Isomerase
Amino acid sequence: MQLHFHQVDAFSDRPFAGNPAMVYHLEQWLDDALMQQIAAEHNLAETAFVVAEGEGYRIRWFTPATEVPLCGHATLASAHVLFEVYGEQKPRLDFQSLSGPLSVTREGRHLWLDFPRINAQRLTEPVAVAEALGCEVQEIYQAKELLVVLASEQAVRTCTPDMVALARLPGLGVIVTAPGEEHDFVSRYFAPSIGIPEDPVTGSVHCSLIPYWAARLGKSQLHAYQRSARGGELFCRLEGERVKIGGQARLVASGTLMV
């Protein structure tokens, strides 16, 4: 069996930046175990599998270790492949997923994800979080991930967490965030418990970051930067119970997997 794949750097307009994702546009679903093996073989943070369904698509995401319920950058990468490789003409693509209906809209050079808003709940600081991150913590919130607020962009940039300790914490991973120097806010995301020590650029965690920063800064349109080694720029909008996350994407490789 031969399967065609496309690698996209999401949230970047150039290669070797943003967050790489592998995309498979399938005619029909593969066995779950095979999709997991394929994701492990590529060993990227996320591999997306897309199958046409009705007027849109169904999408699933796998890390090298497990299937996950939501992934922003691999959704953006999948839409880019459908537009640029498979010639989709509709300006909006609709996806069904484990997290419900999602959509991606093309506006000029940018693709906009439409995801559900997630409201994080403030916690009393567990000592284990500060110790695992190795830095001083200002506030901690619980969403699907732990959302940890630091004092400054410098604190986010220099954070050097203990991955073993982070993997023991509840939730899918740990977001660290702070006010930005040139952006409204910056962040980093660590998810060692699902096989991702640090994710370069993570659309899905902005489902909780956008409501937090919109309330704190008193604005519904935000400019964000994920301060990983590769880095990535995100344009953010809060629209009621939905968040819009915009960015660019670049196709960097295509090939055939033989299984």
User: Anything to note?
Assistant: The helical segments are 32-42, 72-84, 127-133, 153-158, 163-167, 206-217. The chain has a mean pLDDT of 96. The longest helix spans residues 72-84.
